[in-house]
UniProtKB/TrEMBL annotation:
PANTHER family named among the record's database cross-references: ENDOGLUCANASE, LMO1036 PROTEIN
Designated name of the protein: Glycoside hydrolase
Domain Putative collagen-binding: 378-467
Top-rank taxon: Bacteria
Lineage: Bacteria, Pseudomonadati, Bacteroidota, Flavobacteriia, Flavobacteriales
Xref: InterPro entries: Apiosidase-like_cat_dom, Collagen-bd_put, GH
Domain Apiosidase-like catalytic: 42-375
Organism (species): Flavobacterium flevense
Protein backbone atom coordinates (compact mmCIF):
# COMPACT_ATOMS: atom_id res chain seq x y z
CA UNK A 1 0.00 0.00 0.00
CA UNK A 2 1.39 3.41 -1.00
CA UNK A 3 1.25 5.92 1.83
CA UNK A 4 0.89 9.59 0.88
CA UNK A 5 2.78 11.88 3.23
CA UNK A 6 2.19 15.62 3.30
CA UNK A 7 5.12 17.95 2.84
CA UNK A 8 5.17 18.92 6.51
CA UNK A 9 4.92 15.31 7.67
CA UNK A 10 7.57 14.33 5.17
CA UNK A 11 9.90 16.86 6.65
CA UNK A 12 9.32 15.55 10.13
CA UNK A 13 10.35 12.12 8.87
CA UNK A 14 13.47 13.76 7.46
CA UNK A 15 14.92 14.87 10.76
CA UNK A 16 18.05 13.14 9.61
CA UNK A 17 18.71 16.53 8.11
CA UNK A 18 22.32 16.62 9.14
CA UNK A 19 23.07 13.81 6.73
CA UNK A 20 20.43 14.71 4.14
CA UNK A 21 22.21 17.61 2.47
CA UNK A 22 20.28 18.50 -0.65
CA UNK A 23 22.30 19.33 -3.74
CA UNK A 24 22.38 23.08 -4.35
CA UNK A 25 19.59 24.34 -6.63
CA UNK A 26 21.21 25.94 -9.66
CA UNK A 27 19.69 29.01 -11.25
CA UNK A 28 21.46 28.33 -14.54
CA UNK A 29 24.61 26.27 -14.70
CA UNK A 30 26.01 28.34 -17.54
CA UNK A 31 25.31 31.69 -15.87
CA UNK A 32 26.33 30.71 -12.35
CA UNK A 33 30.09 30.93 -12.21
CA UNK A 34 32.12 30.34 -9.08
CA UNK A 35 33.33 33.61 -7.57
CA UNK A 36 36.96 34.08 -6.61
CA UNK A 37 37.75 33.20 -3.01
CA UNK A 38 38.21 36.13 -0.66
CA UNK A 39 41.23 36.41 1.59
CA UNK A 40 43.01 38.89 3.79
CA UNK A 41 45.54 40.91 1.79
CA UNK A 42 49.25 40.65 2.51
CA UNK A 43 49.22 44.01 4.34
CA UNK A 44 46.59 42.45 6.68
CA UNK A 45 44.43 45.62 6.67
CA UNK A 46 42.36 44.95 3.56
CA UNK A 47 40.80 42.17 1.49
CA UNK A 48 41.72 40.75 -1.87
CA UNK A 49 40.52 37.99 -4.15
CA UNK A 50 42.59 34.83 -4.45
CA UNK A 51 44.17 36.18 -7.64
CA UNK A 52 45.50 39.22 -5.76
CA UNK A 53 42.98 41.82 -6.91
CA UNK A 54 41.77 44.44 -4.39
CA UNK A 55 38.36 43.73 -2.85
CA UNK A 56 36.59 46.69 -1.27
CA UNK A 57 33.73 45.38 0.89
CA UNK A 58 30.58 47.32 -0.08
CA UNK A 59 27.81 45.65 1.85
CA UNK A 60 24.06 46.00 2.24
CA UNK A 61 21.99 44.76 5.16
CA UNK A 62 19.34 42.52 3.63
CA UNK A 63 18.90 40.79 6.97
CA UNK A 64 15.55 39.04 6.32
CA UNK A 65 16.18 37.97 2.72
CA UNK A 66 15.96 34.23 3.39
CA UNK A 67 12.71 34.47 5.31
CA UNK A 68 10.72 37.17 3.50
CA UNK A 69 11.69 37.26 -0.18
CA UNK A 70 10.32 35.00 -2.89
CA UNK A 71 12.59 33.67 -5.61
CA UNK A 72 11.41 36.44 -7.95
CA UNK A 73 12.06 39.10 -5.30
CA UNK A 74 15.52 37.72 -4.60
CA UNK A 75 16.38 38.24 -8.26
CA UNK A 76 14.99 41.79 -8.16
CA UNK A 77 16.92 42.67 -5.01
CA UNK A 78 20.27 41.25 -6.06
CA UNK A 79 20.12 42.70 -9.57
CA UNK A 80 19.47 46.13 -8.07
CA UNK A 81 22.38 45.85 -5.67
CA UNK A 82 24.70 44.63 -8.40
CA UNK A 83 23.79 47.68 -10.50
CA UNK A 84 24.63 49.94 -7.57
CA UNK A 85 28.08 48.44 -7.07
CA UNK A 86 27.47 46.32 -3.97
CA UNK A 87 29.44 43.10 -3.61
CA UNK A 88 28.33 41.77 -0.19
CA UNK A 89 24.82 41.16 1.17
CA UNK A 90 24.51 40.60 4.92
CA UNK A 91 21.69 38.21 5.92
CA UNK A 92 20.39 36.20 8.85
CA UNK A 93 20.12 32.46 8.31
CA UNK A 94 17.91 32.13 11.39
CA UNK A 95 16.19 35.32 12.50
CA UNK A 96 14.31 33.26 15.07
CA UNK A 97 14.02 29.60 15.95
CA UNK A 98 10.50 29.54 14.49
CA UNK A 99 11.47 31.22 11.22
CA UNK A 100 9.91 30.05 7.97
CA UNK A 101 10.15 31.41 4.45
CA UNK A 102 7.46 32.78 2.12
CA UNK A 103 6.75 29.24 0.93
CA UNK A 104 5.78 28.22 4.48
CA UNK A 105 8.92 26.12 4.91
CA UNK A 106 10.16 25.90 8.48
CA UNK A 107 13.92 25.98 9.07
CA UNK A 108 14.08 23.80 12.17
CA UNK A 109 12.39 20.87 13.87
CA UNK A 110 10.92 21.84 17.25
CA UNK A 111 12.95 25.08 17.38
CA UNK A 112 16.14 23.04 17.73
CA UNK A 113 19.14 24.46 15.84
CA UNK A 114 20.78 21.04 15.85
CA UNK A 115 17.88 19.71 13.75
CA UNK A 116 17.58 21.62 10.46
CA UNK A 117 14.40 20.57 8.68
CA UNK A 118 15.49 19.18 5.30
CA UNK A 119 13.80 17.04 2.66
CA UNK A 120 15.28 14.90 -0.14
CA UNK A 121 15.44 16.65 -3.49
CA UNK A 122 15.17 20.29 -4.44
CA UNK A 123 12.70 20.58 -7.31
CA UNK A 124 11.07 24.02 -7.21
CA UNK A 125 7.97 22.69 -8.96
CA UNK A 126 7.46 19.92 -6.43
CA UNK A 127 6.65 21.22 -2.91
CA UNK A 128 7.46 17.80 -1.47
CA UNK A 129 11.08 18.27 -2.58
CA UNK A 130 11.66 21.89 -1.65
CA UNK A 131 12.52 23.21 1.80
CA UNK A 132 13.91 26.23 3.67
CA UNK A 133 17.50 25.21 3.06
CA UNK A 134 16.90 24.67 -0.66
CA UNK A 135 15.68 28.26 -0.77
CA UNK A 136 18.91 29.37 0.93
CA UNK A 137 20.80 27.48 -1.77
CA UNK A 138 18.79 29.26 -4.45
CA UNK A 139 19.55 32.66 -2.93
CA UNK A 140 23.27 31.85 -2.88
CA UNK A 141 23.12 30.86 -6.54
CA UNK A 142 21.38 34.11 -7.50
CA UNK A 143 23.97 36.02 -5.52
CA UNK A 144 26.77 34.23 -7.31
CA UNK A 145 25.15 34.95 -10.68
CA UNK A 146 25.22 38.65 -9.77
CA UNK A 147 28.78 38.62 -8.48
CA UNK A 148 27.68 38.98 -4.85
CA UNK A 149 29.12 37.45 -1.70
CA UNK A 150 26.66 36.59 1.07
CA UNK A 151 27.72 37.28 4.66
CA UNK A 152 25.51 34.97 6.72
CA UNK A 153 24.68 35.17 10.43
CA UNK A 154 24.10 31.52 11.49
CA UNK A 155 21.66 32.38 14.30
CA UNK A 156 20.71 35.89 15.43
CA UNK A 157 22.07 36.74 18.86
CA UNK A 158 18.73 37.23 20.62
CA UNK A 159 17.98 33.53 20.24
CA UNK A 160 21.13 32.62 22.13
CA UNK A 161 20.67 35.42 24.66
CA UNK A 162 17.43 33.83 25.85
CA UNK A 163 19.70 31.46 27.73
CA UNK A 164 18.00 28.09 27.36
CA UNK A 165 17.21 27.95 23.65
CA UNK A 166 20.64 27.13 22.24
CA UNK A 167 23.22 24.99 24.03
CA UNK A 168 26.87 24.69 23.10
CA UNK A 169 26.30 21.15 21.87
CA UNK A 170 23.37 22.21 19.69
CA UNK A 171 25.39 25.13 18.35
CA UNK A 172 28.29 22.86 17.36
CA UNK A 173 25.99 20.45 15.51
CA UNK A 174 24.27 23.30 13.72
CA UNK A 175 27.56 24.94 12.74
CA UNK A 176 28.80 21.59 11.41
CA UNK A 177 25.62 21.30 9.32
CA UNK A 178 26.25 24.76 7.85
CA UNK A 179 29.92 24.05 7.26
CA UNK A 180 29.17 20.79 5.45
CA UNK A 181 26.32 22.13 3.36
CA UNK A 182 28.18 25.23 2.16
CA UNK A 183 31.69 23.77 1.97
CA UNK A 184 31.93 24.26 -1.78
CA UNK A 185 30.68 27.84 -1.77
CA UNK A 186 33.24 30.53 -2.56
CA UNK A 187 30.73 33.36 -2.08
CA UNK A 188 29.94 32.61 1.58
CA UNK A 189 31.22 34.71 4.49
CA UNK A 190 30.22 34.06 8.10
CA UNK A 191 29.08 36.71 10.58
CA UNK A 192 29.05 34.93 13.92
CA UNK A 193 26.95 36.49 16.68
CA UNK A 194 24.36 38.89 15.35
CA UNK A 195 23.68 42.16 17.20
CA UNK A 196 24.76 40.65 20.49
CA UNK A 197 27.18 41.34 23.33
CA UNK A 198 30.48 39.63 22.70
CA UNK A 199 31.17 39.00 26.38
CA UNK A 200 28.02 36.92 26.85
CA UNK A 201 27.63 33.23 25.91
CA UNK A 202 31.25 33.22 24.81
CA UNK A 203 31.38 29.41 24.77
CA UNK A 204 28.59 29.25 22.19
CA UNK A 205 30.06 31.91 19.92
CA UNK A 206 33.49 30.30 20.11
CA UNK A 207 31.95 26.93 19.32
CA UNK A 208 30.18 28.26 16.23
CA UNK A 209 33.17 30.26 15.05
CA UNK A 210 35.73 27.52 15.49
CA UNK A 211 33.48 24.86 13.93
CA UNK A 212 32.87 26.99 10.84
CA UNK A 213 36.54 27.93 10.46
CA UNK A 214 37.96 24.49 11.15
CA UNK A 215 35.72 22.81 8.60
CA UNK A 216 35.93 25.54 5.95
CA UNK A 217 39.23 27.39 6.41
CA UNK A 218 38.83 29.23 3.09
CA UNK A 219 35.63 31.02 4.16
CA UNK A 220 36.13 34.28 6.08
CA UNK A 221 34.63 34.52 9.57
CA UNK A 222 33.97 37.51 11.84
CA UNK A 223 31.62 38.53 14.66
CA UNK A 224 28.72 40.96 14.26
CA UNK A 225 28.39 42.68 17.66
CA UNK A 226 25.86 44.78 19.57
CA UNK A 227 25.48 48.49 18.87
CA UNK A 228 28.49 50.68 19.69
CA UNK A 229 30.70 47.62 20.24
CA UNK A 230 33.38 45.88 18.21
CA UNK A 231 34.33 42.25 17.62
CA UNK A 232 37.89 43.14 18.61
CA UNK A 233 36.81 43.76 22.19
CA UNK A 234 36.24 40.05 22.80
CA UNK A 235 37.44 37.98 19.85
CA UNK A 236 40.38 39.75 18.22
CA UNK A 237 42.76 36.95 19.20
CA UNK A 238 40.33 34.13 18.45
CA UNK A 239 41.82 31.75 15.90
CA UNK A 240 38.55 31.70 13.94
CA UNK A 241 38.22 35.48 13.55
CA UNK A 242 39.71 36.65 10.24
CA UNK A 243 38.65 40.30 10.44
CA UNK A 244 36.91 42.70 12.78
CA UNK A 245 33.46 44.19 12.45
CA UNK A 246 31.86 46.87 14.57
CA UNK A 247 28.35 48.26 14.77
CA UNK A 248 28.59 52.02 15.11
CA UNK A 249 24.90 52.12 15.87
CA UNK A 250 21.90 54.37 15.46
CA UNK A 251 22.14 57.00 18.23
CA UNK A 252 23.18 60.62 17.99
CA UNK A 253 25.94 62.30 19.96
CA UNK A 254 23.35 63.53 22.46
CA UNK A 255 21.47 60.24 22.75
CA UNK A 256 24.52 58.14 23.57
CA UNK A 257 25.42 58.68 27.22
CA UNK A 258 27.48 55.49 27.57
CA UNK A 259 30.73 56.25 29.35
CA UNK A 260 33.68 56.05 27.00
CA UNK A 261 31.53 55.49 23.90
CA UNK A 262 32.76 56.69 20.53
CA UNK A 263 29.21 57.88 19.79
CA UNK A 264 28.88 58.95 16.13
CA UNK A 265 32.67 58.99 15.68
CA UNK A 266 32.77 55.61 13.96
CA UNK A 267 36.26 56.26 12.59
CA UNK A 268 37.59 55.81 16.13
CA UNK A 269 36.75 52.09 16.03
CA UNK A 270 38.85 51.76 12.90
CA UNK A 271 41.72 53.76 14.36
CA UNK A 272 41.77 51.54 17.43
CA UNK A 273 41.59 48.31 15.43
CA UNK A 274 44.25 49.51 12.98
CA UNK A 275 46.90 49.44 15.72
CA UNK A 276 45.97 46.04 17.19
CA UNK A 277 48.24 43.02 16.89
CA UNK A 278 47.89 40.71 15.10
CA UNK A 279 46.83 43.04 12.30
CA UNK A 280 43.37 42.30 10.91
CA UNK A 281 40.99 44.16 8.58
CA UNK A 282 38.10 46.05 10.17
CA UNK A 283 34.94 47.75 8.95
CA UNK A 284 31.64 49.28 10.03
CA UNK A 285 29.12 46.48 9.52
CA UNK A 286 26.10 48.41 10.76
CA UNK A 287 25.92 52.21 10.92
CA UNK A 288 22.75 54.28 11.25
CA UNK A 289 20.30 53.12 8.59
CA UNK A 290 18.88 55.51 6.04
CA UNK A 291 15.24 56.12 6.95
CA UNK A 292 15.46 54.96 10.59
CA UNK A 293 14.71 57.27 13.55
CA UNK A 294 17.59 58.71 15.56
CA UNK A 295 17.99 56.30 18.45
CA UNK A 296 15.73 53.68 16.80
CA UNK A 297 12.73 53.48 19.08
CA UNK A 298 11.16 56.95 19.17
CA UNK A 299 9.46 57.25 15.80
CA UNK A 300 8.91 60.98 16.34
CA UNK A 301 12.66 61.57 16.13
CA UNK A 302 14.22 62.77 12.85
CA UNK A 303 15.34 60.03 10.48
CA UNK A 304 18.89 59.42 9.37
CA UNK A 305 19.45 60.68 5.82
CA UNK A 306 21.70 59.80 2.91
CA UNK A 307 24.31 62.38 3.94
CA UNK A 308 24.60 60.70 7.36
CA UNK A 309 25.42 57.39 5.65
CA UNK A 310 27.99 59.11 3.46
CA UNK A 311 29.61 60.60 6.55
CA UNK A 312 29.87 57.22 8.26
CA UNK A 313 31.21 55.64 5.09
CA UNK A 314 33.94 58.18 4.29
CA UNK A 315 34.96 58.65 7.93
CA UNK A 316 35.48 54.93 8.56
CA UNK A 317 37.07 54.05 5.22
CA UNK A 318 39.49 56.99 5.29
CA UNK A 319 40.48 55.90 8.80
CA UNK A 320 41.65 52.60 7.30
CA UNK A 321 38.46 50.58 7.00
CA UNK A 322 38.44 47.64 4.59
CA UNK A 323 35.01 48.63 3.35
CA UNK A 324 31.61 49.72 4.56
CA UNK A 325 28.08 48.35 4.97
CA UNK A 326 25.09 50.50 4.02
CA UNK A 327 21.66 49.96 5.56
CA UNK A 328 18.08 51.05 4.88
CA UNK A 329 15.23 50.72 7.37
CA UNK A 330 12.74 49.25 4.88
CA UNK A 331 15.20 47.00 3.06
CA UNK A 332 16.85 45.52 6.13
CA UNK A 333 13.45 44.21 7.30
CA UNK A 334 12.10 43.57 3.77
CA UNK A 335 8.86 45.34 4.60
CA UNK A 336 5.96 44.28 2.35
CA UNK A 337 2.67 45.96 1.57
CA UNK A 338 -0.05 44.66 3.86
CA UNK A 339 2.16 43.89 6.84
CA UNK A 340 0.55 45.08 10.04
CA UNK A 341 3.41 47.14 11.37
CA UNK A 342 6.95 47.84 10.31
CA UNK A 343 9.77 47.92 12.84
CA UNK A 344 11.13 51.31 13.90
CA UNK A 345 8.21 53.19 12.40
CA UNK A 346 8.85 52.04 8.85
CA UNK A 347 5.98 52.27 6.37
CA UNK A 348 7.95 52.15 3.12
CA UNK A 349 7.83 49.08 0.88
CA UNK A 350 11.24 47.41 0.61
CA UNK A 351 11.27 47.45 -3.18
CA UNK A 352 10.52 51.19 -3.25
CA UNK A 353 13.36 51.84 -0.83
CA UNK A 354 15.90 50.03 -3.02
CA UNK A 355 16.52 53.29 -4.83
CA UNK A 356 16.80 55.55 -1.80
CA UNK A 357 19.37 58.32 -2.39
CA UNK A 358 22.05 56.87 -0.11
CA UNK A 359 21.76 53.39 -1.63
CA UNK A 360 23.04 54.63 -4.96
CA UNK A 361 25.77 56.88 -3.56
CA UNK A 362 27.91 54.28 -1.81
CA UNK A 363 29.41 53.06 -5.08
CA UNK A 364 31.18 56.39 -5.58
CA UNK A 365 33.31 55.81 -2.49
CA UNK A 366 34.20 52.33 -3.67
CA UNK A 367 35.15 53.64 -7.12
CA UNK A 368 37.19 56.51 -5.69
CA UNK A 369 39.24 54.28 -3.43
CA UNK A 370 39.81 51.55 -6.01
CA UNK A 371 41.02 53.82 -8.78
CA UNK A 372 44.06 54.71 -6.68
CA UNK A 373 46.81 52.38 -5.45
CA UNK A 374 44.72 50.40 -3.00
CA UNK A 375 47.13 48.35 -0.95
CA UNK A 376 49.49 51.18 0.01
CA UNK A 377 46.65 53.36 1.35
CA UNK A 378 46.99 54.39 5.01
CA UNK A 379 45.08 56.76 7.30
CA UNK A 380 46.95 60.00 7.96
CA UNK A 381 45.37 62.71 10.10
CA UNK A 382 48.68 64.60 10.13
CA UNK A 383 47.69 66.00 6.75
CA UNK A 384 45.05 68.16 8.47
CA UNK A 385 46.31 71.34 10.16
CA UNK A 386 42.89 72.56 11.38
CA UNK A 387 41.33 69.37 12.70
CA UNK A 388 37.85 69.69 14.19
CA UNK A 389 35.52 67.60 16.34
CA UNK A 390 32.16 65.96 15.65
CA UNK A 391 30.79 67.16 12.30
CA UNK A 392 33.81 69.42 11.79
CA UNK A 393 36.10 66.40 11.67
CA UNK A 394 38.21 66.08 8.51
CA UNK A 395 39.06 62.49 7.54
CA UNK A 396 42.31 61.98 5.62
CA UNK A 397 43.91 59.00 3.89
CA UNK A 398 46.78 58.71 1.43
CA UNK A 399 49.01 56.51 -0.64
CA UNK A 400 52.49 57.34 -1.88
CA UNK A 401 51.18 59.48 -4.73
CA UNK A 402 47.69 60.58 -3.70
CA UNK A 403 45.73 61.93 -0.74
CA UNK A 404 41.99 62.10 -0.05
CA UNK A 405 40.50 64.47 2.54
CA UNK A 406 36.78 64.39 3.40
CA UNK A 407 34.67 67.16 4.90
CA UNK A 408 31.10 66.47 5.98
CA UNK A 409 30.00 70.09 6.15
CA UNK A 410 32.10 71.88 3.57
CA UNK A 411 34.33 73.79 5.97
CA UNK A 412 37.69 75.17 4.85
CA UNK A 413 40.60 72.73 4.97
CA UNK A 414 44.08 73.80 6.08
CA UNK A 415 46.44 71.07 4.94
CA UNK A 416 50.05 70.20 5.67
CA UNK A 417 51.47 69.57 2.23
CA UNK A 418 54.41 67.35 1.35
CA UNK A 419 52.79 64.15 2.62
CA UNK A 420 52.85 62.56 -0.81
CA UNK A 421 55.73 62.47 -3.30
CA UNK A 422 56.45 65.12 -5.99
CA UNK A 423 57.03 68.88 -5.97
CA UNK A 424 53.57 69.68 -7.30
CA UNK A 425 50.11 68.18 -7.03
CA UNK A 426 46.93 68.28 -9.05
CA UNK A 427 43.89 69.08 -6.90
CA UNK A 428 40.21 68.46 -7.54
CA UNK A 429 36.89 68.36 -5.70
CA UNK A 430 35.10 65.00 -5.71
CA UNK A 431 31.34 65.05 -5.07
CA UNK A 432 30.22 62.06 -2.92
CA UNK A 433 26.61 62.61 -4.01
CA UNK A 434 27.18 61.88 -7.68
CA UNK A 435 30.81 60.82 -8.14
CA UNK A 436 31.70 63.82 -10.28
CA UNK A 437 35.14 65.41 -10.03
CA UNK A 438 36.08 69.03 -10.82
CA UNK A 439 39.68 70.13 -11.30
CA UNK A 440 41.14 72.95 -9.19
CA UNK A 441 44.48 73.06 -10.95
CA UNK A 442 48.08 72.63 -9.91
CA UNK A 443 49.60 73.53 -6.51
CA UNK A 444 53.03 73.45 -4.87
CA UNK A 445 53.38 70.47 -2.59
CA UNK A 446 54.85 72.39 0.36
CA UNK A 447 53.85 74.44 3.39
CA UNK A 448 50.24 74.82 4.58
CA UNK A 449 47.57 75.42 1.95
CA UNK A 450 43.89 76.22 2.36
CA UNK A 451 41.15 74.69 0.24
CA UNK A 452 37.60 76.01 0.41
CA UNK A 453 34.92 73.54 -0.74
CA UNK A 454 32.05 74.68 -3.00
CA UNK A 455 28.88 75.99 -1.34
CA UNK A 456 28.13 77.28 2.11
CA UNK A 457 29.22 75.44 5.24
CA UNK A 458 26.35 73.20 6.30
CA UNK A 459 25.93 69.60 7.46
CA UNK A 460 25.57 67.40 4.38
CA UNK A 461 27.55 69.70 2.07
CA UNK A 462 30.23 67.05 1.92
CA UNK A 463 33.22 66.93 -0.40
CA UNK A 464 36.46 65.04 -0.93
CA UNK A 465 39.60 66.92 -1.86
CA UNK A 466 41.69 64.75 -4.18
CA UNK A 467 45.43 65.46 -4.37
CA UNK A 468 47.57 63.61 -6.90
CA UNK A 469 51.29 63.74 -7.49
CA UNK A 470 52.42 65.40 -10.72
Amino acid sequence: MKVMISKKMGKLFAIAGLSCLAVSCKVNNEETKTLAKLEVASNKHYFQTEDGKPFFWLGDTGWLTFGKLSREEVNQYFENRKEKGYNVIQVMVLHSLTVKNVYDDMALVNEDVSKPLTTPGNDFKNPEEYDYWDHVDYVLDVAQKNGLYVAMVPVWGTNVAKGDKVSKEQAEKYAKFLADRYKGRTNVIWLNGGDTHGDEFVDIWNAIGSTLKTNNPDQLVTFHPFGRTDSSENYHNASWLDFNMFQSGHRTYAQDTTKGAFKEDNYKYVSRDWDLKPTKPTLDGEPSYEGIPHGLHDTLQPKWKDHDLRRYAYWSVFAGGAGFTYGNNAVMQMYHKGEKKGAYGNKEIWSDALNAPGAGQMQYLKDLVLKNNYFDRVPDESIVANQGEKYDYLAATRGTDYALIYTYNGRTMSLNMGKIKSDKVDASWFNPKNGEEKSLGEFKNEGVLEFNPPGEQADGNDWVLVLKSK
